[in-house]
Design brief:
Elements: H1 15-24, E1 31-33, H2 34-41, H3 45-58, E2 61-64, E3 67-70, H4 72-102, E4 105-112, E5 115-122, E6 137-139, H5 144-152, E7 158-162, E8 167-177, E9 180-189, H6 197-213
Helix pairs in contact: 2-3, 4-6
Length: 224
């Protein structure tokens, strides 16, 4: 018997379980209409519509005309999950070391389409006005990480720029990890962060250390 043939009595009663059931519908189809989701889950059409619209507001789904598809939020969570274990075990300690050496805020990001998605942030208390966080997306051409990745791939590169008023950033390419371009940056007050090779050197060294752990390109997977 398919889910759609089930009686209402067999459906989960909690809202969270029903939302999960709706999301599970998209495992086998990239786009679904309201009718298809309602029929596939067995949830009444009115309740299904309410949950679909809630998921759209949350960014978990996106509406395309009369159909729905997975939204950016789920894609971001998937990307973060993909890298989380390696970041926690090896990369974050290297980012913390870079923060201690420079005193600046450190970001690790991955090129996702036309944006840079931040995977890690270290030293945020050093610059409370820099309101970035893990999961933040910034247009690649407006990000020092993005500029380093766009300008230098497949060669190592460094970029300089400003993030907010009075703050400079130095970005460097790490390499290709699982087919995605990864980079890092430091951000600090312009009176302490200079756009020269001396200040760029620690950023380059941290990027090289992370690249070495991931076997330079990441093509062979992280070292164990």
């Amino acid at each position: 018997m398919s889910v759609g043939d089930s009686s209402n009595a067999s459906l989960p009663t909690s809202t969270l379980d029903r939302l999960s059931l709706v999301l599970d519908s998209f495992r086998s189809a990239s786009r679904l209409s309201l009718t298809e989701v309602s029929r596939g889950t067995g949830i009444p059409r009115t309740s299904t519509l309410r949950m679909l619209e809630q998921l759209v507001r949350m960014g978990w789904l996106r509406r395309r005309g009369a159909e729905y598809e997975l939204g950016d939020t789920l894609a971001e969570l998937g990307t973060l999950s993909l890298y989380r274990d390696s970041v926690d075990r090896v990369v974050t300690p290297l980012l913390r070391e870079l923060h201690l050496v420079t005193g600046h805020v450190v970001h690790l990001g991955v090129l996702d389409g036309k944006d840079v998605l931040y995977l890690e942030k270290v030293g945020g208390s050093a610059a409370p006005h820099l309101r970035t966080r893990v999961g933040t997306r910034i247009p690649a051409r407006s990000s020092t990480i993005g500029k380093a990745l766009l300008a230098s791939a497949p060669r190592p590169g460094v970029s300089f720029g400003t993030c907010i008023t009075g703050f400079g950033c130095i970005g460097a390419r790490v390499g290709s990890l699982g087919g995605a371009e990864v980079g890092l940056s430091v951000s600090g007050p312009m009176d302490r962060l200079k756009f020269d090779q001396r200040h760029a050197a620690p950023v380059r060294m941290a990027a090289a250390a992370i690249a070495h752990y991931f076997d330079l390109t990441g093509a062979a997977g992280p070292r164990t």
